[in-house]
Design goal:
RNHCP, 1 helix, RNHCP domain-containing protein, alpha+beta, binds zinc ion, 119 residues
Length: 119
Amino acid sequence: MSDSHNILKTSTFTCVRCGLTVSAHAADGSRRNHCPSCLHSRHVLDHVEGGPSDCRARMTPISIAVLRDGSWMVIHRCVRCDELTSNPVCTDDNQLILMRMAVRPLAQPPFPLEAFGDL
Ligand SMILES: [Zn+2]
Ligand SMILES: [Zn+2]
């Protein structure tokens, strides 16, 4: 008789935005919480209090942060409760979307770039 506790949990999730079936483990063994294709995530962890969150709303990738060691993080914002999270970028994440988010602030500066001409 097989014990269901011994069966490895199928660790996949369905992307809330594009419907892709995503393995919860990236190729390098790290844990993945966002879709590699559209980079959207779902609010299932309470990052402030810890533990599971009952929000379960969609989380939109809004920007890139670079850590001291040079690794990239994706910043997600929950569409329902506005919580912000940061998650490591996986090697197979959509590089076009990552680059687009990374250059967006430079493409749309909130001040005129001509000011730097005087420096
Ligand atoms: Zn997706
Ligand atoms: Zn939320």
